[in-house]
Backbone:
C-alpha cells in the first residue's frame, strides 16, 4: 500500500449541461455506456495502490452515493482504510465550477488529520477521463522532497493540468489551519501562492486524457470512444476501470437489427438500426426505429418508426412511434429524464 | 446459528464426462451458459428467489473455478451473516478421509453442517439443470402433505420415459413406485433430481444407508427406494415449467440456442425470478464499422468486427474482420481471428481461433473447440 490517501472533489458542477446536470453532479455523469465519471479517479487511485479514499460529496448526492455505495466495486470496503464519504459545503449547491474549494476540505479537517498513518495525499477532481497509474508520480514526489507536485498531461501539443496533485499531509494541514476563515478560496491557488517555487514540482503523464468541462467536451469525449484505439487506451489497458455492477442479461439483437460503430451495454434489445451510438443498459430499439449519433442512457425506449439523430436521451426517455428529431453535431439535443417524446 | 425452516444442499461435484473438453478443467456446474452465466447460476438464483438463504455447495471434481466463482455468495445476495453460501469439500478426520462416494454419501458426510442450522427440511439440488422454479411452492406442498420426502417431477414424452427415474403416484400424488430407467414405464413423471426431505427422515435414511455395505450411496438408487420400502410418506410435486438437464453437448447447445428464440422458454430478460451471475467489470460491447449481426446475444466486453448470425458471444469474446460466425457459441474470452468461418461450434473459454480457420459445418455433430482441438488436428 502507498503512503498516500486519496481525496476526490466532487462538489462542483459543469457549464452548459442543461438538464443532464440538473439532478446530478459532474462526478455522477453517466459515460461510455455503463460508467460514471467518478469511476475514473476511484479506479486510478485503487490501481495505484491507494487504499484510503475520501470522496467529497455534492449537495445533490443521491446519484453519486447510489453509485459508489460502500466502495465495494473498487475494493474499498475495508477494515483498514477504504472509502470515506465526506460532506461538501454549501458552495457546491450554488453551482460553482471551482473544483478544489478550500471549505470542502476545511469541513473535513478531522478526517484529514486522522489519516496520520499516511504522509501524503493525492487530490483530484472527477472531470478527467483517463486510465493512469499514479505510482511513478508518487515515487518521484517523495524522492523530490517537495511540498507539492502538480500533474499535467499532453494534448494538442501543450501541457494541460490534470486536476490532480500530490501534497504532503503536513502542508495540507497547515493550509487548512491557516485559512480557516477564507473558505471560498481555491486550494490550488493557495498552494501556488503560499509555497516557494522551489517547493512545487510537476509531473507529466503520457497517457491519453479526455477533459470534460462542457457539454461539447462530453459529446466529443463520448464519441471519441468509437475509435477502437482510443477505446483500448481507456478501457483495455493494463488496469481496469471499475464501476457499479448491475448484472444485466446479454444484449439481444433480432433478425431485423442493424448495428454499426456503436458501444452497446448489456441488457439491451436491438431490433432496429443504430449507427455511431452509445447505448446504456436496458435500452430497447424497436424494429423500424433508427438512431444515429445518439447517446441513450439506461431504460430508453425507441419505438418503431422513430428516427433520432444527434441527441442525448437521459434515463427512462421514450421516443414514441414516428417521432423524428435531430440536433446539431456539436450541440446535440438533450432530452430530459422520463420524457415521453 | 439460528434455526432455519429449510436449507438447500447443492450437489456440484459431478465431472460431467459427456461434456468432454468443456469440463476438462472445470466442474459441470461452473461451465459457462448463455454468454455470461454459469450453469449453477440457475439453481442459486432459484434459491434466493424462493427465499432460501442458506446453501451448502458440495464440491469434489475440479472445484477451482467453481469456488472462485462462488466467492462469498454476494452475486446471488447469499453473503449473509446467518447462512449464505458454504462450500463443502470432502475432508479428512482422525479416522482418515475419503471422497464422496455418491450423492447420498456427500450429504451423509455433512450431517453436522446441516445440524448446525437445525432445519425442519432440506432441499437437495443438482447444479447442472437449466430452469426457473420457485422452491417455496414445492416446500408449501411438502409441508401441507406432511411428507417425509417430496420429489419434484416433470412430465416427459412416453417414448423418452425409459431414460429417466420414473415415479408412479396415486391420485393424491403419493409415490407408490419408483423405477430407475424402466424398460416398460407405467408413468411418464420423471424425477428432476430435486428433493425436499424432512430432515429427521433424511438423517435416519442416511445413517441407515451408511450401514448397508451393498449401497451405492445414491439418492435415486438407494435412499429413495429404502424410504419407499419402509412405507414413509413420499409425494410427487408436479412442475410444468421449462427444465433441462444440460449434461450432453447436444442439450447444452440446444438449450442455449433456445435463448435466441422470440419467446425463449427460460426468459433471462424478465425481472421476476431473475437469474443472477457473478458478473464482471467489462466495458459495453464494441460493435465495429463492419459488424453485421442477426439474432444473437452479446455480452459486455465483446468486440464484433465481422458477421454474426444466430450465435452467442460470451463476456469478453471477440470476432475480428472478415470472419463469419453462425449458429455458434463463443464462451467467455474466446477469440475468433480474421477471415474465419465458424459454424455450429462451441468455442471454449480463452480459446484463440487462428486467422483463416474453418471450424464446424452446417450438418453433423456440434464441433467443440477446447484446448486439445488444435493439437489433435496436427
Residues:
Amino acid at each position: 500500500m502507498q503512503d498516500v490517501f486519496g481525496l476526490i472533489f466532487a462538489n462542483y458542477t459543469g457549464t452548459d449541461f442543461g438538464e443532464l446536470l440538473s439532478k446530478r453532479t459532474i462526478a455522477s455523469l453517466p459515460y461510455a455506456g455503463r460508467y460514471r465519471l467518478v469511476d475514473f479517479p476511484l479506479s486510478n487511485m485503487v490501481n495505484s495502490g491507494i487504499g484510503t479514499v475520501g470522496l467529497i460529496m455534492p449537495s445533490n448526492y443521491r446519484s453519486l452515493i447510489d453509485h459508489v455505495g460502500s466502495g465495494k466495486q473498487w475494493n474499498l470496503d475495508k477494515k483498514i482504510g477504504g472509502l470515506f464519504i465526506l460532506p461538501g459545503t454549501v458552495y457546491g449547491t450554488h453551482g460553482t465550477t471551482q473544483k478544489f474549494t478550500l471549505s470542502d476540505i476545511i469541513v473535513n479537517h478531522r478526517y484529514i488529520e486522522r489519516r496520520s498513518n499516511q504522509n501524503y495525499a493525492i487530490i483530484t477532481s472527477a472531470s478527467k477521463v483517463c486510465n493512469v497509474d499514479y505510482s511513478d508520480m508518487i515515487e518521484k514526489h517523495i524522492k523530490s522532497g517537495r511540498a507539492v507536485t502538480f500533474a499535467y498531461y499532453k494534448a494538442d501539443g501543450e501541457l494541460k493540468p490534470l486536476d490532480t496533485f500530490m501534497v504532503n499531509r503536513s502542508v495540507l494541514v497547515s493550509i487548512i489551519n491557516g485559512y480557516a476563515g477564507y473558505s471560498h478560496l481555491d486550494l490550488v491557488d493557495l498552494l501556488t501562492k503560499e509555497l516557494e517555487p522551489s517547493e512545487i514540482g510537476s509531473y507529466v503523464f503520457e497517457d491519453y486524457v479526455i477533459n470534460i468541462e462542457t457539454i461539447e467536451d462530453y459529446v466529443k469525449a463520448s464519441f471519441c470512444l468509437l475509435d477502437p484505439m482510443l477505446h483500448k487506451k481507456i478501457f483495455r489497458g493494463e488496469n481496469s476501470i471499475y464501476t457499479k455492477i448491475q448484472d444485466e442479461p446479454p444484449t439481444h439483437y433480432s433478425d431485423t437489427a442493424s448495428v454499426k460503430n456503436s458501444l452497446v451495454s448489456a441488457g439491451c434489445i436491438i431490433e432496429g438500426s443504430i449507427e455511431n451510438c452509445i447505448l446504456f443498459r436496458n435500452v430497447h430499439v424497436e424494429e423500424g426505429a433508427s438512431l444515429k449519433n445518439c447517446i441513450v442512457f439506461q431504460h430508453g425506449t425507441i419505438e418503431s418508426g422513430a428516427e433520432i439523430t444527434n441527441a442525448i436521451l437521459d434515463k427512462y426517455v421514450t421516443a414514441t412511434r414516428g417521432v423524428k428529431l435531430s440536433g446539431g453535431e456539436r450541440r446535440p439535443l438533450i432530452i430530459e429524464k422520463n420524457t415521453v417524446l | 446459528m439460528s434455526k432455519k425452516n429449510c436449507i438447500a444442499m447443492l450437489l456440484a461435484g459431478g465431472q460431467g464426462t459427456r461434456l468432454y473438453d468443456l469440463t476438462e478443467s472445470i466442474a459441470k456446474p461452473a461451465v459457462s451458459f448463455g454468454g455470461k452465466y454459469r450453469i449453477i447460476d440457475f439453481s442459486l438464483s432459484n434459491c434466493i428467489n424462493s427465499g432460501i438463504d442458506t446453501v451448502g455447495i458440495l464440491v469434489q471434481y475440479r472445484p477451482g473455478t467453481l469456488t472462485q466463482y462462488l466467492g462469498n455468495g454476494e452475486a446471488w445476495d447469499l453473503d449473509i451473516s446467518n447462512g449464505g453460501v458454504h462450500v463443502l469439500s470432502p475432508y479428512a478426520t482422525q479416522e482418515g478421509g475419503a471422497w464422496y462416494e455418491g450423492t447420498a454419501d456427500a450429504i451423509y458426510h455433512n450431517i453436522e453442517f446441516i445440524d448446525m442450522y437445525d432445519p425442519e427440511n432440506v432441499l437437495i439440488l443438482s447444479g447442472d439443470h437449466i430452469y426457473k422454479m420457485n422452491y417455496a411452492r414445492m416446500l408449501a406442498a411438502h409441508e401441507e402433505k406432511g411428507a417425509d420426502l417430496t420429489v419434484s417431477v416433470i412430465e416427459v414424452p412416453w417414448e423418452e420415459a425409459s431414460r429417466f427415474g420414473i415415479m408412479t403416484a396415486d391420485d393424491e400424488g403419493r409415490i407408490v413406485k419408483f423405477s430407475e430407467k424402466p424398460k416398460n414405464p407405467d408413468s411418464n413423471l420423471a424425477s428432476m433430481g430435486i428433493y425436499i426431505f424432512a430432515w429427521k427422515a433424511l438423517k435416519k435414511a442416511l445413517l441407515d444407508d451408511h450401514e448397508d455395505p451393498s449401497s451405492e450411496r445414491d439418492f435415486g438408487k438407494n435412499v429413495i427406494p429404502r424410504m419407499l420400502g419402509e412405507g414413509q410418506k413420499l409425494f410427487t410435486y408436479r412442475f410444468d415449467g421449462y427444465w433441462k438437464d444440460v449434461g450432453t453437448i447436444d442439450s447444452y447447445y440446444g438449450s442455449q440456442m433456445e435463448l435466441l428464440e422470440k419467446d425463449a422458454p427460460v426468459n433471462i430478460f424478465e425481472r421476476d425470478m431473475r437469474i443472477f451471475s457473478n458478473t464482471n467489470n467489462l466495458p459495453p460491447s464494441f460493435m465495429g464499422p463492419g459488424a453485421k449481426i442477426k439474432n444473437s446475444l452479446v455480452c459486455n466486453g465483446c468486440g464484433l468486427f465481422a458477421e454474426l448470425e444466430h450465435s452467442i458471444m460470451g463476456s469478453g469474446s471477440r470476432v475480428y474482420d472478415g470472419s463469419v460466425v453462425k449458429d455458434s457459441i463463443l464462451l467467455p474470452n474466446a477469440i475468433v481471428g480474421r477471415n474465419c468461418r465458424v459454424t455450429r461450434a462451441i468455442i471454449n473459454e480463452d480459446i484463440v481461433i487462428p486467422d483463416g480457420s474453418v471450424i464446424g459445418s452446417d450438418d453433423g455433430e456440434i464441433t467443440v473447440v477446447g484446448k486439445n482441438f488444435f493439437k489433435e488436428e496436427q
